[in-house]
Amino acid sequence: MERAMRYKNVLDPETKLVRGRNADGTWRDPKDFAISGWTGHDEKQRNIYYHNIMLFAPHDVQGLVNFMGGDDAFIEFLDNFFPMGDEWSMHAPLFVQLPGTTVENSKDYQRTAG
């Protein structure tokens, strides 16, 4: 589990997002398109990528919640996250089942009868 928790090394308290580091440990420029080939050198896609990759710690949801500033801040992140994305990480919709988000979001993401 220790190794899995190393994701915290790239959580930037300034931007409240994942941010790359240089070899010397300093933060990379948050506007650097080299963060991923998926950004396509497009500012909107880069922003979506940063938000999408932010949820890549399903093994430590409480750690993400704490990092973002608590339940309300995390719910606000999700409220802003889903409308902006076009291809979320496969696990991202599972976060709408967290306490405090289920009632508001389940009707938006449940596409079947029931």
Automatic annotation (TrEMBL):
Provenance organism: Seonamhaeicola aphaedonensis
Any one biological process term the GO annotation gives: glycoprotein catabolic process
Signal peptide: none
Keyword Protein biosynthesis: no
This protein's name: Glycosyl hydrolase family 92
One Gene Ontology term, aspect cellular component: cytosol
UniProt xrefs under PANTHER family: PEPTIDE N-GLYCANASE PNGASE -RELATED (PTHR12143), PUTATIVE-RELATED (PTHR12143:SF43)
InterPro entries for this protein: Glyco_hydro_92, PNGase
Any one GO MF annotation of this record: peptide-N4-(N-acetyl-beta-glucosaminyl)asparagine amidase activity
Record's keyword annotation contains Lipid metabolism: no
Domain Glycosyl hydrolase family: 1-87
Keyword set, alphabetical order: Hydrolase
Coiled-coil segments: none
Domain of life: Bacteria
